[in-house]
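Milestone M4 deliverable, item 7.
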Amino acid sequence: MKKALTLLFSFILFLSCQSPEADLIIHNAKIYTINKKFDIATAVAVKNGVFIAIGGDELLNQYSSKNTVDLKGFPVYPGFIDAHCHFYNFGLLQQQLDLSGTVSFDEVIERISMYSQSNPGVPILGQGWDQNDWEVKTYPTKDKLDELFSDRIIALKRVDGHALLVNQFTLDLAGINQSTKVEGGVVVRENGILTGVLIDNAMDQVYAALPKPSVEQQTQALLAAEKICFQNGLTTVDDAGLNKEQLQLIDSLQKKGVLDIRVYGMISNTPDNLEYYLEKGPQQTPYLNVRSVKVYADGALGSRGAALKNDYSDDRGNRGSFVTSVEEIEKLAFVLAKKGFQMNTHAIGDAANHEVLEAYKKALTVDPDPRWRIEHAQVVSRKDREAFGSKIIPSIQPTHATSDMFWADERLGEKRIQTAYAYKSLLDWSGKVVLGTDFPVEHVSPLKTFYAAVARTAENQLPEGGFQMDEALTRMEALKGMTIWAAFANFEDKIKGSIEVGKMADMVILQKDIMDIKIDAVPRIKVVATILNGDIVYQKTNY
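Output delivered:
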């Protein structure tokens, strides 16, 4: 009996000496937890894809792991969340013609010609042109396209995705002619002649006529977009407008382990999509969250489609237009409120923001925590800012301010520009702002988002001193906007957005610390590694 008790005691002693096993231990790091106290830790332990401990060197004694990493002081942050982007379309663009950075329409023609030679016989689809970057800042016309490509589909989206340039062949294919009129859109004419430029809803007929990408092409697009996102430290992307088929493809690829990135998928506002999802209700897996509807109230400022209360300063008689009527917005708001879906509405002009805020206030009378969002909230009158609060969150894209500031005052005028891109004021009223890039409209990098929010300048540090610096965010506010506040806006703050016990082990390791380095150096900082569920999904070899 004595021998048996001795053996039992020895076995218990052996067990007590064994440290709990972790899948990953990171130590000797500067870890921004983004918890309520904004604590900085030096070590974390991960098991089964979640954080099991956060602290200091004591974790090395408390846990054992075959995968223990000394980060030698590198900074660590929660995985970055892009609160507004077009992930799927960005992937498709990798297979198409990139027109970003063109300085003239002649350069656009040159790129089309080169693409045509290397891609014979296929439709020429592309995105990225911006007439505001050209010396001649007027819309292009289809004349040169008709001359060079009279028998081939050409459809080229403006950088913001709210205008489309097509040739006559494509107009004919889509059935667009002199008598075509579109509610919520414009078929641009000069002296009564079609120019080939279509704005907002007028683009839909072309999209309906274009050949649809195959499942293989769509899959390759999603994987290409994922790779670029991981390279830039993104672990969650909020795709602002997906159809049922696209959401189902994403879900199937994630469940097969082919696609790893987490997606907050906003349902595109179409009858088919709404009928399907409002009947099924919100859907959520560890990788895909579908509980919101993306609505377009108006167009974009650059294409003069944003709905303004008064005329454009550089286009008298034009106030833009509503893509979705005020009546439809109000009706949909009541439906979504009853069904428990989040409403995320694109609103850029001050008229659009006013009407959306009014619709939200009427519908949000029961749910104490709906977290409805206004995407962009770009031009908001001082009076309308007061409507933001705990129920309505501004979803902003700081790089829009630094891209648009060189021409936005021409559209809005000296007085109205003071109410635009007012991120600090929106934060003061709402208590939270969520940050995104709107890629591919802007660059995919969240570090460029961070920089634009804080420095309020382009990377060339113009304008000197920053653009309306009283509306700049602090570094802490900007970091929260792309981590914990973004997770909150996605109804995911209990499972991600900060480095805390029980949350998903999503992290990004940077070359230098964006919280204390000189702000102008931030856009050049490299991502050292991106970690999802405690697994490295991207690692830079040289840094």
